[in-house]
Q: What sequence folds into this?
């Protein structure tokens, strides 16, 4: 299931997107932690080459990715993107941090 809000187009609707640590979303899920990138364009070649298409196609600059975990197992992801370099605040990051979902 995918949901979106705002003017930035969704990524990967109806597509299989590789899951690896070279992309922001993959690293968040694999490492089971929130990833906050202030300026994706500045790190695209060295740190997150797997997010290059996302950055180039949509102009994503600041990004926050948080895995959704159930009993420690990733079941989804919340991905928030900005088209300008405007890092997320500590309060916003704290709101996005995963907490265990209990059955």
A:
């Amino acid at each position: 299931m995918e949901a979106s809000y705002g003017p930035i187009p969704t990524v990967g609707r109806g597509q299989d997107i590789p899951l690896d640590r070279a992309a922001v979303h993959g690293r968040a899920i694999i490492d089971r932690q929130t990833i906050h990138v202030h300026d994706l364009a500045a790190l695209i070649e060295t740190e997150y080459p797997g997010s290059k298409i996302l950055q180039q196609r949509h102009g994503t600059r600041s990004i926050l990715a948080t895995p959704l975990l159930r009993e420690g197992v990733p079941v989804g992801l919340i991905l928030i993107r900005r088209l300008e370099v405007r890092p997320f605040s500590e309060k916003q990051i704290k709101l996005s941090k995963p907490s265990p979902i209990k059955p």
